[in-house]
Structures are given as structure tokens and as C-alpha cells.
Amino acid sequence: MTIAVTGAPGFVGQAVLDEAARQNIPVKALTRREQAPREGVEWVRGDLHSPDALRELTSECAAVLHVAGVVNAPDKAGFVAGNVEGTANVLSAARAEGVARFTCVSSLSAREPQLSDYGQSKREAEKLVEDSGLDFTIIRPPAIYGPRDTEMFELFRAARMGIVPMPPAGRASVIHAGDLSRLLVACSPGEGGMWSGKVLEPDDGRPGGWPHKELAHAIGDAVGRKVRAPAMPVALLRAAATLDGLFRGKHAKLTHDRVSYMVHPDWTSRPEFSVPPQLWQPEIDTREGLVETAAWYAAQGWFNR
Asked: Which residue segment(s) compose the domain that 181 sits in?
């Protein structure tokens, strides 16, 4: 059983490769750049817009695990190209190569596509998967954290300075990349149809998620600091997004599109879309996982950048 993986060089993709290696599952992995050899992994050079590479990636595979996606883009076209057209291209290759099983990593933002171009693109990608004719599972992770992550790292770095600005009052679920990768590898080949046709919203097992302030304080504890966690007004967040765009251009982390869904008060995973416990359960306590993640950042020198 070989799994084809897109987005393998990224944060979640690397966690998937680690988990596949632990289970001795061979992987064919898409990459745009040269990668170091890795046991059990066959690297395929190309991207989501390379038809020949996608055919090579999916050939002789039991399943496709589509992790790749665009989380930040300067405009709507960037999200469409990466998330909608990219997904369509991978689906096309999978069908052409006779791969029946398709697992797609989406986002909770797809529940509220009207809020952002990002969320709309993820929902459109989901519709393509649902209409593909393939045996599919769609995974909508909440906020993902863990070693190698560059997105939530900004909160850890802020915590080291004693203040973690948060969106207006609300709640969010989280999940460690290690737990998410176990789920993705488990459901990729399918198990007697138990995963088939499902949309799942996994999390760390904490009912109702984390209030924003409590999550900020937990990150502060992880880096050994007592922190303040002011709730930022929407107008201030939008002003900050404008400044980030001016200074970092297309590399801006806080964009207006991101602000649009950040300020939504409820990004918790819904119980009715939870993963059946007999199939998967989270194993990593979030407070312990945050400490581990902070230690990894420190060991890699990220806090000194």
C-alpha cells in the first residue's frame, strides 16, 4: 500500500511522513524543490499545476492524501489557483490513474465561506472532492500547532515578550500536528468504508475548545512567561493588516482576508462532525504539546531570529 501525498515538504506534510515512516507505509511525495533522500519516500518533482508530475505521483498508489494548499495569498486569485484549481488537478490525476481513495485536508473556515476568500476557496475545493466520484474523506482541522509550524509560532514569540494580542472574545479548537497526522494516515486507505463520504472536524478532545485568553495564557505558560492577552478590536486588526501588507508585501502574515475569519467568534470543532472514537482519538494533551513545541522552537533557534 503506497500513499501519494501532496504538500509533503510543509508543516503538516512532514508530520505525515513521520507517521507513515513509523507505520512502515511507503509514500510518494510531491515537491517543488530537491529534497534530501528519506527512507520510504519517493520524491516526485512538480507542483499542483504539473499534470505529468501528478500522474507520476498518483500512479500505482492505493490512496491520495491531499495536504497541499494556500493559507496566505495577496488576492482571491491566489487562493483559487492553490486551493480550487490545485485540488481539481490532483483529483483529475487520481481518476486517470485509477486511485479510488482520496483524503482531503480542508479547514474549519470552509464552514463560513462568506467570511473570506480563503474559506470560500476551501469550500469550493470540498465540493470538487464531494462531486469527484471517488471514495473520499474531508478533514477540517482547527488551528494546528507543533514543531515546524510557522503560523502559530508568532503567538509563541509574542508570549516571550509578555503580551499575546488575540482576536475579539471567542473560542477556538486546536490540534497537535502529531495527532492530526495519525488521523490522516489512518483514514487515507480507508477501513471497510468507515471513513467513506465523511466530513470530519477533529480536535484535541477539549469540549467547547479554548477561549482565546485561556489559549494565550497556556502558550505563555509553555514559554515560561505570564502574559497579558488583550482582545484586539476589529478596526485595530484591520489597521495592523494594512501595515503588515505595506512592510511585508505578499509575505504578510496578517492580511485583511485573514482578519475577516479570525474575528469570527466560534472556530470550535463541532461534536456532530467528530471522529468516531473507535477509529481515532487525540493522544497529545495540549498543554504538554505547547511546552514541547516551545522547546523545539528554542532548540532550533527560532526565537533568536
From this structure: 3-145+175-204+271-283
